[in-house]
Amino acid sequence: MLFRQAGIFHTDYSADRALFPINADRWMIGILLLFGFTAPLYLNSLYLSSYLLPWLVWTAGALGLNLILGWAGQFHLGYAAVMGIGAYAAVHATRAGVPWEIAVVLGGLMAAIIGVGFAFAALRVKGLYLALSTLALQFVMDWTISHVPAISGGTQATLQAPDIRLLGWPITSDGGLYYIALVWCVMVTSFMLNLNRTALGRALIAVREKDYAAAVIGVNSFYFKLVAFATSSFIGGVSGAILIGTFYHAVTPEQFSVDVSIQALAMVIVGGLGSIIGSYFGAAFILLMPGAMNTFISWAAAKFGFSLGIETLAHLPQALYGALIIGFLLVEPLGLGKIYNNIRDYLLVWPFGYVKK
């Protein structure tokens, strides 16, 4: 089989710390990167801009949220507000003449500053109290964005995003916008892959497991929680700015409401807390499954001659979609990423007989 550890010898620290010591993992990463970078050559523009592009941006956002939930173990129910801050800041900076690539970074920094400001108050509590505190961030930012005309133009206003100019070159094609989303997602993924190998990642895991025990061994839990909130907010702010620039092309308060925060939370939980590949699976499941269910039900009704009313067609896909989420969590509460790891772990030792004992 491809997944075989025989012949892999850790003779130095660099080999022991390798991200992908197994050849099959390196081959799969290479194939996925090749598929990602060549997708505009053979995929229809509709699939590229309507499915792959938002999936990549939301995967980056889910990874940022997973940094708080999965690595630091802190609840966050206001992640859409963080993304909205980055989106509005980047759009206003671009309209003021700031180059787009700098405006995106400014959006991330603004999101990090406001996220840390709320974290100072929120991190004085834990558990459900922390969740309610971050939910308050969502409602405060919703009200502020909607009722301050200087930010959004009003409750019903739509703020048009300027066209993206990267290093002075206009990016208007679907392929160009897709590559921006792809590069950002790869950058966030690379950062998360290397996080566990850093002192920051190990400190966050220690805080997640037991902050009092972490404090005993010299880890300043409050400081690292603030760093986690700042880093996660920066990733969310940049992701929100890229989502507006590459996909929506205009920003409204409804795009980053509390429903979107719940959607982002569902991506992380369904994919798996602390799982990088789970964030990819969770984002794909939450974004793409409703449309796939609609298509499947319409096809099945036409195939078997069922007559379904408009109300039924509108609500049945949502019911089946919710049932699928429950089913996945019943089979594996740790999410889709854990299911993938279970299959991979089985292939690592297959077909040895002791697996069945």
TrEMBL record:
Protein name, UniProt field: Branched-chain amino acid ABC transporter permease
Keywords associated with the record: Cell membrane, Membrane, Transmembrane, Transmembrane helix
GO (cellular component) term, any one: plasma membrane
Listed GO MF terms: branched-chain amino acid transmembrane transporter activity
Pfam families with a match to the protein in the record: BPD_transp_2
Taxonomy of the source species: Bacteria, Pseudomonadati, Pseudomonadota, Alphaproteobacteria, Hyphomicrobiales
Source organism of the structure: Afipia clevelandensis ATCC 49720
Annotated TM spans: 27-45, 76-94, 100-121, 176-195, 226-250, 262-289, 296-314, 320-340
Keyword Transmembrane on entry: yes
Location in or out of the cell: Cell membrane
Membrane topology note: Multi-pass membrane protein
Record has Membrane as a keyword: yes
